[in-house]
Every structure is written in structure tokens, then in C-alpha cells.
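Please supply some protein, with C-alpha cells.
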Amino acid sequence: MTDARTPVLTVFRGDEHPPDMGPIEDVAEVRYTDAAGLSDALRGADALFMYEFLSTALPSAWHAADRLQWLHIAAAGVDPVMFPELRASDVVLTNSRGVFDDSIAEYVLGQILAFAKDMPRSLRLQDERTWKHRETERIAGTSALVVGTGPIGRAIARMLRAAGLRVSGAGRRARDDDPDFGTVHATDRLTDHLPDADYVVAIAPLTDQTKGMFDARAFAAMKPSARFVNVGRGELVVTADLVAALRAGDIAGAALDVFDTEPLPADHPLWTMDQVLISPHMSGDVVGWRNELVAVFAENFRRWRAGEPLRNVVDKQLGYVPSGS
């Protein structure tokens, strides 16, 4: 923004008010809204902060965005706002890349340890007051394939390597000299490399190319002893194919933080499978995460007002922030 007038900022907050907004309120006209009021709040607005980042309400309100220059989403994934009208517009899109990297990496390591050390069963036996000795697995020396080579995928790779796993990646471009993954395989050859992995971690962005990439063919390619961890988007997975693979023993287990329907319906078969670990889309949500999201936006808001380059600018055709940006 280069003119001297007070900027108008719309904040789509849903049910929760974002913290630490005082400094921004001091220099801007801030309009807080939910889905019902989004159209009215967008008229005449210069910028939009999508604090309620999972909502799909924006496309139906987009007609009212008559002066919008910049949209920031409080998430790493931008698929909820990647509708055709936004892609075709001049509106700059930025995301919150960097906030969730280490926390999601810790979650992935925790779920791998939970599988290897049979922790869910220990908790069930504790509830039953049953003493049952078992042997468990080592994770050092096992192999992990991280599908998605952005900042979160890299944080996962570094943490798993530190725990002794052999890690490779899968991304758009194959290479053998990656500093975090070593070898990166091309995702269009994914099924060629799934048989080598003890743990398959999905953290790819949701695009037209990645939607449904984990289907019956992918699960059939995995080891029967492999575990699947999804911390990306639920739509990366054909859920019915995952259920079928688990029932057939094509894979040994799944840790799922994201689903194609959220909340996961109470009658969904995944709830009752002993080899499935479920969490409610919380892998990156650690104490203070909301403050960090606002801090990322506030720094970009400062840059925007000063006419400086914005951080985390999304390539709207690719659907993510390009590497090196």
C-alpha cells in the first residue's frame, strides 16, 4: 500500500478473536466479521486477514471485494482460498509459512514412536488394569519417505534423521543432493518408492496434482508392515481406499490428523480401528500458536503499509510458496 490514507482491514475471525491485534487497530480501520457478514466487511477493504483459515466462505463473498489488494491466510495450506476468481485476480496472497514446522515435526516423530513402542495398546491395557508384557520395535535404522518437500517436510526430515531414521523425500523434482532429504524422488514416480518405506509421511500441499494421490494403488505398493502418517490435507487421501487397505492388512497402521470431512463423523469406521491413531487437526497447534500466527501477519502488514516486499507470497498457479521465496 502506497497512499497515505488509513487502510481498511477485514479480519475473518470465525468464532475466535485473534490475539495481539491492538497495534494493528491503532493504524487501521479493522472490521471483524464471521461468514454471515463477510460480504459487507469486504466492501471497500484493502486487505483481508483470513484468521479462520479452514472456512470456505470466501468464494461466495468475493463479489464484494471491490478494492482488495492483499489476502493473508493464517495457515500454511492455502487450498481453502484457491478458487478461480482469486487465482485470476491481482490480489496478492500470502500464508503463514514457518509457524508450524517444528511442532508438526514433533507430532510426526511422536506418532512414529507411538507405533513402534505400542503405546496405544499400553494405554488400553492400563485402562483394563492388565499386565501384559510385549516386545516393541526400534525406530533407528528404519526408513521414512516424506511426501512434500516444503519447510514442514524439511523440519520432519531433520527430526526423523536426528532420531536415527533413514529419510528420503518425494517432490515435484527428483534430485540426489538435497541438504535435508538426501534423495528426493519425483512424485509422479511415487509408487516406485513406496515399497522401500517403513513410514510414509504425507505433508504435500493440496493441489489438482496431489488430490487423491494416496489411493488404492499407492497403499497396495506399501509394505504390509508400513505405517502411514497424514499431516497435510485429508483430501490427499482417498479415504475409502485407506479403510480398505487397513482392513485387508495392506498396511499396518495410520496416524491421521486431517480428514476429507472434518469433524470426522462419529460413525466413521476409522474410529474403531485399533491400528489407527486419530487427532482432530491439531498437529501444529502448540501453546502460543495463535499469537505466532498474528505476529506473522503483523510483520507482513507493516511491510505492506511501508511498500516493502511481502514474505511468504504464494504462487497462485502452483498453490504454494515456491522454494527459496
Q: What stands out?
A: The chain has a mean pLDDT of 97. The longest helix spans residues 289-306.
